[in-house]
């Protein structure tokens, strides 16, 4: 099954396209630009992430800052008004996080970023053109910038085309990645945009169909940085994934197209952790604290957390910890009875294990005393203990 998320950061446009919706922010009832947004950028284990870019979008522009070595960032000069601001935190190698916030004089928000695995494709068109394995169509290497990218870029001008053309990336093996994130700058200007179209498409291999994932609505002065996620889960994103920018129309109606800083990031297929092993006493007394250990291994060595159900309507999640490292928890049962401890592990990317179990008998204090005398008796007469064991009594 395919899941698709389209993301546009919005550079020089009045509307910001996000998750397929158009969000506009009217410039009215704004106070001075004295709003601020600050906080920390960390991973789920609370380790600081340095160099993350935080952008706050408003009124067709934005303010930004980068996180320092402690993960701290501070964005100021944000207008205080009634509209929500799209706040985006990104860094290569991490999944982008975005949130809409109402900004005041001292707004605080902490971003938590997940890693995205490895870079499968990175092309800035600064080397030999066309890059190896690419089909450029009527695109050429240009010393001009594409939107806010650093030159050079790949650019197709109306003088170089005629009718219907495309640029296609080289094929990359994404078969071991459940999600791929496609990032790039794209710009376009047209004299008569109603008569042309540019589509963004991808295919998983040479025989699969091209799938349209175009994030823009028309060719009326597009200039933006786009991030698009394609998700296939365990079947992978394809053994020969390719991206295509397809131009449809007569060249005379076009001014130019440009593409730059193309990246494809792959998130590896996420295997769930193994069911936890629960270790501890199998019998005990009411109102006495008992100690248990929980241990699960994640095949991808991802950090894991545990959901523990103690069998007495008490449940809860632990914090994340390293895979394969036991977690010690204590619990008190208030009443005698038979209880089943259940626990499952969840890795940092959301995959959950099967349940692990351990049965525990909580014996009333008076019965516990009788049991103690009885077992001391059996210790003195091992033959009787063996016979009772064979009969299933003890």
In total, the number of strands is 29
**Approximately what portion of the residues adopt beta-strand conformation?**
over 45%
> Going by CATH, what is the homologous superfamily of the largest domain?
Galactose-binding domain-like
Please report the distance between the alpha carbons of the first and last residues.
53 Å
Q: How much is the average pLDDT?
A: 85
Which stretches of 5+ consecutive residues score pLDDT under 50?
Answer: 1-28
Question: Can you give a write-up of this model?
Answer:
This protein has 394 residues and is mostly beta strands. It has 4 domains: 3-112, Sandwich (Immunoglobulin-like); 118-268, Sandwich (Jelly Rolls); 277-363, Immunoglobulin-like (Sandwich); 370-394, no CATH class. It is 6% helix and 45% strand. It has 2 helices and 29 strands. Strands 1, 12, 13, 14, 16, 19 and 21 form a 7-stranded antiparallel sheet that branches. The protein has a 5-stranded mixed sheet with strand order 23-29-28-25-26, with no helix packed on it. Strands 4, 7, 10 and 11 form a 4-stranded mixed sheet that branches. A hairpin with a 6-residue loop joins strand 8 and strand 9. The longest helix is centred in the C-terminal third of the chain and has 16 residues, at 365-380. It is elongated.
């Amino acid at each position: 099954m395919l899941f698709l998320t389209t993301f546009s950061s919005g550079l020089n446009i009045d509307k910001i396209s996000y998750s397929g919706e158009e969000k506009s922010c009217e410039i009215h009832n704004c106070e001075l630009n004295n709003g601020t947004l600050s906080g920390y950028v960390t991973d789920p284990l609370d380790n600081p992430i340095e160099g993350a870019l935080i952008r706050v979008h408003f009124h067709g522009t934005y303010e930004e800052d980068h996180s320092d070595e402690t993960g701290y960032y501070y964005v100021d000069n944000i207008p205080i008004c009634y509209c929500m601001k799209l706040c985006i935190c990104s860094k290569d190698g991490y999944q982008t996080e975005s949130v809409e916030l109402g900004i005041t004089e001292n707004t605080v928000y902490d971003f938590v970023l997940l890693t995205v695995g490895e870079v499968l494709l990175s092309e800035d068109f600064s080397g030999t053109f066309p890059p190896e394995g690419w089909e450029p169509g009527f695109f050429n290497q240009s010393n001009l910038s594409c939107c806010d990218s650093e030159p050079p870029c790949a650019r197709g001008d109306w003088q170089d085309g005629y009718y219907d053309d495309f640029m296609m990336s080289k094929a990359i093996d994404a078969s071991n990645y459940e999600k791929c994130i496609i990032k790039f700058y794209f710009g376009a200007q047209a004299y008569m945009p109603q008569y042309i179209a540019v589509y963004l498409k991808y295919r998983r291999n040479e025989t699969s169909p091209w799938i349209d994932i175009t994030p823009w609505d028309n060719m009326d002065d597009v200039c933006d940085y786009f991030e698009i996620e394609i998700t296939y889960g365990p079947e992978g994103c394809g053994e020969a994934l390719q991206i295509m920018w397809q131009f449809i129309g007569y060249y005379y109606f076009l001014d130019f197209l440009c593409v730059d800083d193309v990246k494809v990031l792959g998130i590896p297929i996420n295997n769930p952790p193994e069911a936890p092993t629960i270790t501890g006493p199998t019998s005990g007394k009411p109102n006495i604290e008992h100690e248990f250990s929980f241990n699960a291994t994640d095949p991808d060595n991802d950090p894991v957390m545990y959901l523990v159900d103690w069998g007495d309507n008490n449940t809860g999640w632990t914090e994340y910890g390293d895979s394969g490292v036991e977690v010690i928890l204590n619990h008190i049962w208030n009443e005698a009875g038979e209880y089943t401890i259940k626990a499952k592990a969840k890795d940092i990317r959301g995959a959950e294990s099967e349940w692990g179990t351990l049965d525990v008998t909580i014996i009333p204090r008076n019965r516990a005393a009788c049991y103690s005398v009885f077992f001391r008796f059996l210790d003195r007469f091992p033959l009787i203990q063996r016979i009772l064991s064979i009969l299933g009594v003890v």
